[in-house]
Amino acid sequence: MELRPYQLEVARAAMNSIQQGLGLTLSVEIARQGGKNELSAHLEVLLLTLHMARGGTLIKCSPTFKPQTIISMERLKQRLDDYCFDGIYRPQMGYIIQLGNAKAIFLSAEGSSSVVGHTADILLEIDESQDVGKEKYSREFRPMGSAANVTTILYGTTWNDDTLLEEVKQANLELERKDGIRRHFRYDWQEVGRCNPDYVKFVEAERQRLGEEHPLFRTQYALLPIKHGGGFLSRQQIALLMGEHHRQSHPDGKRTYIAGVDLAGECETGMAGESALNNNRAKGCDSTVITIAELDAADSAQPVLKVAEQYRWTGTPHSQLYTQMIEILRNVWNCHRIVVDATGIGQPVASFLKKELGSKVIPFVMTSRSKSDMGFELLSLVNSGRLKLYEQDGSPEYQQTLFELERARAQYRPNQTMNFYVAPHEGHDDFLMSLALVVQAAKGVSPREARGRLRES
Known about the structure:
Blueprint (H helix, E strand, L loop, with lengths): L4 H15 L5 E6 L5 H15 L5 E7 L2 H18 L7 E3 L3 E4 L2 E7 L14 E4 L7 H8 L9 E6 L7 H16 L4 E4 L1 H5 L3 H14 L4 H6 L8 E3 L3 H7 L15 E6 L10 H10 L4 E10 L7 E11 L7 H11 L4 E5 L4 H12 L3 E4 L3 H16 L3 E2 L7 H12 L1 E4 L5 E4 L8 H13 L2 E3 L6 E3 L1
């Protein structure tokens, strides 16, 4: 079987544990697209072949049945075809592949899946184990191999310090220190790249695009776990945001501008004017914030977003802001693309703006997944130096933006998503969210010429 040297290390360790009846639990971290699934499929072909006559069962589970479990089954079928078993193996019941008397059973590790009753006596595999629940594994999958003292392999990439994979990894490293038997195998992108120069080119481009400290680059390629909680931005990242351009009160006609609109929950007040503003701030009302940014395409490959202007209204009902928002977005800045928070109470406002301004308005509904993606994209621009605030001008808007950037927290979830926010007891995150939304607006435009003319993508 043609495997790379690091894949062979894992395969040999697994086969030794199986043939010697050691029943080891191995943890395997391989950088994304480094051949983890290919290793698994080759190992399955070998074991099914060896057990064709006497029989036996190997079990592999994935965090979801569709698509992950299905992909694993299809990969095994392809490898069986490659080794001339086409027409010999038999798919059964939509989740079993049988070769002779040996079976490979593919199961879902979703919380609601019913898997109790299956038994593994050849091998137990846990794919993408960083996304598999600890309790699900301990209560339902781990016991499947108890009668045969089966060898278990947990594959994946790292995430935070609270995942199943990280827990098993740390236990394995402790056991290794005691008895010298290697149980943990780690191959980051540089190790994979020694066998594949094209892979190195791709990952280096990702490092430039995302930044070396981006959570996705750290976990998927560098295999470095992120802390379970902590600051969303480091001091170094905030320093990267500091720009040298002046704040603008009106546009340069030759430039392209985009906007991110974060809408506040409305506060009731019977006061008016500056007294109402101060009262609403004292009551803890959040604000509606519009961030205007210039898309500087001097470098057509990686355009830079320069924050040009910020607007804030605190405690003002949305209905009273319609005229001002239209004036700012259309008549003052003639924004090329506008992304509006359309979550909950923001939905009718986003609909109104879209009706008035047309297709340039993009409603953005914040779910746990979409907000996570928004946060990761914000980090990629920060880390690569492609998002810049205007220079310090002492304004309340600048000070509030800096305050929120410094107070912003990140919560990394087991399913490789994150939440970013300012804790309510510390303040609001309106400027932070507006900044993230303007980054979303940049996704809708792409450079046409190096001189800065742009077209819609």
